[in-house]
Design brief:
Mean pLDDT of chain A: 91
Helix content of chain A: over 70%
Largest sheet of chain A: none
Strand content of chain A: under 5%
Largest interface: A-B, 45 and 46 residues
Number of helices of chain A: 9
Oligomer: homodimer
Distance between the termini of chain A: 65 Å
C-alpha cells in the first residue's frame, strides 16, 4: 500500500509538472509566438530542470502542440459556458462572448491576443502539424457558434433562412482580424467596431 | 568627369544591392515572419556579404522596417491602380482587388499571406517601432478604400448614409482574418466566403 501511495504521489507530481509547463507555455506563447519563445524561459518560470522537460515532451514542437490542445480545451469550455447559456437569449450570448474578449484584452494590456491566431499566422506556412491542429480548433469554434446562431433562428432573432455555419465562419475570420488590430492599436476600439458592424449588418435581428 | 561617373556607378550599384536585399527580405519575411528569418539566408539569396549589409542597415530590425516600407509602397501602388480605376464602377474595383488577392494566394501556394498582417501578429506585442509603422500601413489602406466607397456612394452603389471610413476599417480587419484562414486551409475558400458575405451584407448595393 505504501508503495502504491508513493507511486500515486509521484504520478500526481509528474502530472502537476506537465500541467505547469503547459500553463506557462500558454502564457508565453500567447505573447511571443512560437519561434521567439525560448524553452529556457519556460523552464525557468515553471521552475523545472531541462531534463524533466524531455520526460514530458519529445521536442519544442511537441510542447507547442500540447499548448494548443490546452488552449483549445479552455476555449471550448468558455464558449460552451457563454454560447449555451440557457438564461440568456442567443444573440446576447454572442455579445457576452465579445464583452469577455474585451475584458481579456484589457487585462493583459493588449499583449496576448489569440494564441491560435498568433500561431496560425506564424506557423501555417511552415509546419503542417500545427496548421492542421489549429484548423480543428477553428472548426470547433465554428460549430459552437453555429449552434448558437441556429438557436437564434429558432428564437426569431435571425431570419429563418440565415446560413448559421457560414455566418459563424465569417464571424471568426473577422474576430481574428479585430483582435490583431486591437493588439496593433493597443485599444479595444477595433473590437467595438467589429461588434457594431457584426450586429448591424451580419447578425441583424429580424 | 571620369571620377564622377565612377561615383555614380558605385552609388547605383550600392542602391541596387540595398534594393535586392529588401526585395529578397520581403519574400522571405512574407513566408517566415521576422524572428524565424535568418539574415544568413537573406544574404546568401541576395549574394551579398555580411559586411555590406551593415552599410545599409544598422541591425535586423532596421532592415525589417525597410521591408515594411517597401511592402507599404508596393501595396499603395496596387491599391491606387485598382481602387482608383476610372474605367470600372467603384464596387467592382473592390471585387477586382479581392480577385487579385486570390490569384496572389494561389501563385505562392498559400504560403505568403499578408506581410504586414504576419508581422503585426508576431511583433505588435513585442516591438513598438514595428507596431506603429504597421498601423500607418493599415491607415493608408483604409483611406484608399474609404475614398473608393465614397465614390460608390456618389455613384448610387451604396446608401448615401453609409459610413465609408468604418466600413473600410471593418473590411481590412476581416480581410486579414480571411487571408489567415486561407493560409491555414491552403484554399481560396475563406477569401471567397469573405467576398460573398462582404458584398451580401456589408457592401450591399442599393
Amino acid at each position: 500500500m505504501a508503495t502504491k501511495s508513493a507511486t500515486a504521489v509521484r504520478r500526481a507530481s509528474r502530472s502537476d509538472t506537465r500541467d505547469r509547463l503547459i500553463q506557462i507555455g500558454t502564457e508565453i506563447l500567447s505573447e511571443k509566438g512560437f519561434d521567439a519563445t525560448g524553452l529556457d524561459e519556460v523552464l525557468r518560470r515553471a521552475n523545472v530542470p531541462k531534463g524533466s522537460f524531455y520526460h514530458f515532451f519529445a521536442c519544442k514542437a511537441d510542447f507547442g502542440l500540447a499548448v494548443v490542445d490546452n488552449y483549445a480545451f479552455l476555449w471550448d469550455q468558455k464558449l460552451k459556458r457563454l454560447l449555451r447559456n440557457p438564461k440568456v437569449a442567443p444573440l446576447q450570448r454572442v455579445h457576452d462572448y465579445i464583452d469577455e474578449g474585451v475584458r481579456g484584452l484589457r487585462k493583459y494590456s493588449f499583449r496576448r491576443g489569440c494564441l491560435v491566431g498568433n500561431l496560425a499566422q506564424e506557423l501555417a506556412g511552415l509546419d503542417d502539424s500545427f496548421r492542421k491542429r489549429i484548423q480543428l480548433v477553428f472548426a470547433s469554434w465554428e460549430r459552437l457558434l453555429g449552434e448558437c446562431l441556429d438557436e437564434a433562428k429558432l428564437a426569431g432573432e435571425l431570419p429563418a433562412d440565415a446560413d448559421s455555419a457560414r455566418l459563424a465562419n465569417f464571424f471568426w475570420m473577422a474576430w481574428e482580424g479585430a483582435i490583431l488590430q486591437a493588439k496593433l492599436e493597443r485599444s479595444v476600439k477595433p473590437v467595438e467596431q467589429f461588434r457594431d458592424i457584426i450586429f448591424k449588418f451580419i447578425l441583424a435581428r429580424c
